[in-house]
Specification:
The termini are far apart. This protein has a two-stranded antiparallel sheet. Helices cover about 65% and strands about 0% of the residues. It has about 180 residues and is mainly α. Helix 1 (about 5-35) runs antiparallel to helix 2 (about 45-65) and helix 4 (about 90-105) packs antiparallel against helix 8 (about 160-175). The chain has two domains: about 5-90, no CATH class; about 95-120 and about 135-175, no CATH class. It has eight helices and two strands; from the N terminus they run ααββαααααα.
């Protein structure tokens, strides 16, 4: 018969195996469904917050509660602990990097392409009352500011594929506070 330490070790290995399977399900099934078409989204701060809440809820469900060694009480995992347990970039970073990659792709298209004309064109007619909504281009400019590229001509910057790839990876690797 196994000793208590060996049994607990085997139990911990089995739990880790199930958690690995659950993270694989999250990464291969849930994320692609949630992120379908995210390249064209114009996210507001509230929508970013809702996506982070969704991701943290799923990760808390996967990793479960944590038992405090001193008191023996079960506690929920904090966001920082979830970030340590799940090393991949958070969902908002994935969306922003995919948006930047798509923006570079569209910027390299010719001016005769419809997608390019929609991207750089101006809408005609009267706009609705109130504060103008953020456009897709505005989100790209804000992402470039986060990376430190300032107010560069992002369409000209996207013509060089290597610098565009560098920007996409920089956006992906930023850490949120």
């Amino acid at each position: 018969m196994l000793s208590f330490d060996a049994e607990s070790f085997v139990f911990q290995v089995a739990i880790q195996k199930f958690k690995d399977q659950d993270t694989n399900v999250y990464r291969t099934i849930i994320l692609p469904v949630v992120l379908n078409g995210c390249e064209t989204w114009s996210l507001t701060l509230r929508e970013e917050w809702k996506l982070r809440v969704f991701e943290n809820t799923v990760l808390r469900r996967i990793f479960g509660p944590r038992r405090d060694e001193v008191t023996g009480e079960w506690t929920r995992l904090h966001n920082e602990e979830l970030n340590d347990l799940y090393p991949s970039s958070n969902i908002v970073r994935v969306i922003k990097s995919r948006t930047m990659r798509w923006a570079g792709h569209v910027a390299r298209m010719g001016e005769e392409r419809g997608v390019y004309r929609v991207l750089v064109g101006k809408q005609e007619g009267k706009r609705p009352l109130g504060k103008p909504r953020l456009r897709w281009v505005d989100n790209i400019r804000m992402d470039l500011l986060e990376v430190g590229c300032g107010y560069m001509d992002w369409i000209g910057l996207a013509q060089d594929r290597d610098s565009c790839r560098t920007l996409v990876s920089a956006v992906m690797n930023l850490r949120d506070p």
